[in-house]
Amino acid sequence: MTYPKRYTITAALPYTNGPIHIGHLAGVYVPADIYARYLRLKGADVAYICGSDEHGVAIPMKAKKEGISPQNIIDKYHTIIKKSFQDFGISFDNYSRTSAEIHHKTASDFFTKLYHQGDFIEEITEQLFDEQANQFLADRFVVGTCPKCGFDGSYGDQCESCGTSHNATDLINPKSAITGNIPTLKSTKHWFLPLDRYENFLREWILVGHKNDWKPNVYGQVKSWIDDGLRPRAVTRDLDWGIPVPLENAEGKVLYVWFDAPIGYISSTKEWAAKEGKNWEDYWYNNDTKLVHFIGKDNIVFHCIVFPSMLKAHGDFILPDNVPANEFLNLEGNKLSTSKNWAVWLHEYLEDFPNQQDVLRYTLTANAPENKDNDFTWKDFQAKNNNELVAIFGNFINRVVVLTHKYYDGFVPTPNEFLAIDEDVLAALKEFPNTIEKSIERYRFREASQEMMNLARLGNKYLADEEPWKVIKVDEERVKTILYVALQIVAGLTVVSEPFLPFTSTKLKNLLNIVFCKKDKGISWNDVAEKEVLLHPNHQIGQADLLFSKIEDDDIEAQVQKLIATKKANKNDNKTVNPQKEIIEFEDFTKLDIRIGRILEAKKVAKTKKLLKLKVDVGLDIRTVVSGIGESFSPEEIVGQQVSVLVNLAPRNIKGIESQGMILMTDIVDGKLAFITPSEKVANGQEIS
Questions:
Q1: Left (φ > 0), alpha (ψ -120 to 50) or beta: where does 631 sit?
Q2: Which residues contact 383 (CB under 8 A, 6 or more apart)?
């Protein structure tokens, strides 16, 4: 296999309108991190680049919702996101932000170059406008019906149901997300990138050139877009938040977030290169650099059509060698949603499961949505930890280390004659780096993680077959060879697990007293496949320390209950308000005689679930009232409760009982009812007016 001189690896810039959740990790950041860590172990020159995406409509919308400024929003979430990535072990070489001065300059210069080259179309078009809010409705400021799939909650830039990207004016029955009003059309000037000019280039570059090496889900979506015919796409917006369009007479206009955001990869590389004393152009201009974009499937069109067209128009940049986009990860059978709080947030996970980063990394990798949408469940998370990381990986390491200390005081024993089984196991060990490497190079990280786990399985089987704890009683010399072989597997596992389980690998390096990729004394990825000895005889290792601990049912139940609470809260938050009833006159209202009463007695009505028979003192007299509140309250808990009673309602026979009034109620969370009561105790019979 031939390798490029250097690698530029980009991970999609996360929006700073919320924290990072497991869908982001599974779709983008964990696979990208595995790839970058693997390449570094191979000794490659890697620039792993990312940063916060701090422009676009989502930011001011979030700011309005929280009642703070957009700057407060981006500062708040940039800090949370960056720290979460660091604590989780995502090994970016640089994590920047698009509010940085270097990015504003880079994006403005990029736009200006294309403008002066004549690569834009300048047009006055009609765009959706909210008269009440007095602003144009760009992207997520407008919602309506998707013109492709019919989903009635599509945004103005993209449908979250089918993933289609479109313009706000394409929506059917659009409404303002600000006021709820139906927008009008108003003329405004914008600059467009004529994507149709790049159809032939894209067809040749992707549909012909990458037919056999790009993932089918990526290739298929790109082919669909190109076959449907590309059209000019606006690269500017009417907004007061973003990078100002660097032209005269362009007040109130900013660069479209999907024009400026991918340029963030370039500006972040510039920032990193300046700190490291490197030439950033080597990582973006030279053909001996391999550029790989890691994204989710909702970003395919921007990274495979829009951004490459921008790079092609500019003329100096290399194009991505691959864009291994993943599908979506669902949570307990439901689509992950930032706005609905249906997610496992990374910063909360790190608090709830301290020092267990690798458990989540492994679970997300082993269940990665590489070819189709997949589901994360807490039960599967528990099973991956208990049945694989604890029972297979951790168990093997622990047994080898404990036996080495028990028999040889922690020193690697000198082996004796190798039997056929020993030679077979050592030969198999040498094959694992190549096998894992082939999967990683094809972006099959789920497959690669299972091959890594298979090495631990190999070690467990070898110990189970050879039973050194029994052999020691009859052949001490044989046990030296068994544990020597087992320790070579441990050393190999320490290296090949690093991309998948970096925190565990670090523990193992410290335990084995070894380093990676250090000339003469370290162990590299290739060494595992090529060296005869990884841990030499008489090398001393540390004491055993459990790498993983069992996750109990109570821990999982707590997470499940957290999600159930979220679902209930969402149901209450999203509850629709019934429309106002017909207008009545004041005289109609005065006909209602509503008074404060007190429940003296309550009994269940036979053969019903909801009905309670109440005796209520309403001041005028004591009434019998039948009320359908039995699923919200037990009879015992409401005796003595003050209530509001409509006392002049015509009597009605309910289940053979004459009901002489109506208790006024409202419903709260999850359909549970609540009494309408005075804030302070008042006399029975007091009128409500």
A1: alpha
A2: none
CA distance 270 to 636: 71
Q: What predicted TM-score, i.e. pTM, was given to this entire model?
A: 0.82
Residues 6 or more apart whose Cβ sits within 8 Å of residue 668 = 572, 674
Q: String of b and e for 570-584 (b: at least 16 CB within 10 Å)? A: eeeeeeeeeeeeeee
**H/E stretch holding 346:** helix 346-352
**Strand (E) positions, 486-604?**
594-604
Convert the pLDDT of each residue in 324-373 to its tens digit: 999 999 999 988 887 778 899 999 999 999 999 999 999 999 999 999 99
How are beta strands 665-667 and 662-663 bridged, if at all?
unpaired
Q: Is 563 helix (H, G, I), strand (E, B) or coil?
A: helix
Please write the tens of the pLDDT for every residue from 113-171.
999 999 999 999 888 888 887 777 777 778 888 888 888 878 777 777 776 777 778 88
Mean of the pLDDT values across residues 52-67? 86
Residue 287 has pLDDT above 90, yes or no: yes
Per-position b or e across 267-301, b if 16+ CB within 10 A of its CB: bbbbbbbeeeeeebebbbeeeebbbbbbbbbbbbb
For residue 577, the model assigns a pLDDT of 55
Tokens for 511? 């335990």
Provide φ and ψ at 600, rounded to 5°.
Answer: -95, -30
Q: What phi and psi, each to the nearest 5 degrees, are found at residue 322?
A: -155, 155
Tokens coding 396: 């093997």
Rounded to the nearest integer, the mean pLDDT of the chain is 92
Q: Which H or E run includes 396? A: helix 395-408
Q: Is 391 helix (H, G, I), strand (E, B) or coil?
A: helix
Q: Can you read off the two tokens belonging to residue 124?
A: 């006055």
Numbers of helices and strands, H then E, in the chain: 23, 26
Percent of the chain with pLDDT over 90: 76
Whether the Cβ atoms of residue 133 and residue 117 lie closer than 8 Å to each other: no
CA dihedral 263, 269, 271, 274 (to 10 degrees): -140
Give CA angle at 70 (68, 72), nearest 5°.
Answer: 65
**β-sheet bridge partners, residue 129:** 136, 184
Closest CA to 439 of 1, 43, 47: 1
Element (H, E) at 674: strand 673-675
* Residue 625 near residue 595 (C-beta atoms within 8 A): no
**Structure token digits, residue 417:** 């004659």
pLDDT at 520 over 50: no
3-state secondary structure of 524: coil
Q: For the chain, how are helix, strand and coil distributed in percent, rounded to 5?
A: 45, 20, 35
What tokens were used for 632? 């919200």
**b/e per residue, 478-511, with b = 16+ CB within 10 A?**
bbbbbbbbbbbbbbbbbbbbbbbbbbbbebbbeb
Cα–Cα distances in angstroms (integers) from residue 679 to residues 334, 596, 597, 675, 676, in the given order = 40, 12, 14, 11, 9
Residue 89's Cβ-count burial label (10 Å; 0-12, 13-18, 19+) is middle
DSSP H or E segment with residue 613: strand 612-617
3-class SS of residue 672: coil
For residues 409 and 416, what is the distance between their CA atoms, to the nearest angstrom? 18
Question: Radius of gyration of the chain from Cα atoms?
Answer: 33
Cα three-residue angle 413-504-87, rounded to 5 degrees = 155
